[in-house]
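Worked example

This section walks through a single chain of length 393. The input is the sequence exactly as stored; nothing has been trimmed or padded.
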Amino acid sequence: MAEAAARSKKISDEAVKPTIGILSIGEMGLGIAKLLISHDYTVTTCTARRSQTTRSRIKSASIQGYDTDAEFVGNSDIIFSIVPPRDAVATAKRVAKAAQSETAIEARAARTATSADRLLYIDMNAISPLTSQRIAQIFEPARPPRPAPPPRRLSLIERISSFASHQSAPASPTNTTDAPPLLPLPPPPRPAIPISYLDGGIIGGPPHLSNTSSSSADTSTWTLPSIIVSGPPSATTSPSLPPSLQTLLNISIISPTIGHASTLKCSFASLTKGLTAIATLSFTTAHSQSPTLLPHLLDHLEQYAPSLHNFLVPSLSRMPPKAYRWIDEMHEIGQTFSAPVDQYGGGFGSSSSGTPSAADGNNSTATNDRVGQRLFDAIANVYRIVNQAQTVS
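Given that input, the structure is written out below as tokens.
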């Protein structure tokens, strides 16, 4: 009987499609929104502080826009944070603050098509695992102060001694003026929509229909990125994150630990975007020496490293509009590689106790702790120069 009830609840949960909130509707957010809407999901976003161009894009995509964070949070079941890395923490704080507003609480209470008790927030940004941990702490409920330990029981001798001293002491007049003032009780925690947090990342480009497809409702016709997620099972299973949604969006649960998805994302991006930055230096150096050198470099790449040639040439042509986002992403990757090993570090940091990691070799711990950060700070400067050149032009 219990198994039948559990199966019935699972079917019921799966029948109720969660409303997906997306912050914000950029290229990736819009692609995910279009995929969801084509499969009859309701997608929401917040239009506050958005340009008229973005508002028009939201409306044309049939995304439900709300004017305030509170309305947006109260009418969403799952929120995807897809913003530039520099905005990841601020976006989480916005959602946490909005979840405490009466408007959001009342909006969620009034909704009947909600399959999960808690709002689910998934950070899909290119951030370090340490930044992801900071965001997880934003959504942790405030812990009440630890109660004072009970008074120690006096021994029999101590009780007799205390009684005797009270009997022999002269009575003193009551003086209430010397009594310490009563401290006010701390205010009770503000009610809020409970929020579960998952660490995530997106590897690949935005979802889009394949050139040969004619139906947007057929999942097989969409080209999808890989969405990787890590976090506690309570947040990665139905009804919080229904299996049907995981299948549709190509979501993989890789670990129960917050930070592992961000580590995988940063490790992948360090190879692709790091190599693109090195290619930028390589190609511009060859061209600056002589305009005839770059064609020779490309010819040799095509002949002796065709896979590298086929990756770098289109990557460089697509990179400039994204350079501004990649500046902070490179700093986050550097932080990932330089963190202590037992705090999701990349192997070049020491342990949190100061013990050198296996990668330290004979070099000083202080030098190795910063090697990843220094390397990707330099790569960030490459993208900063590209972005500045774009702005000037």
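What to look for: The CA atoms of residues 203 and 226 lie 5 Å apart.
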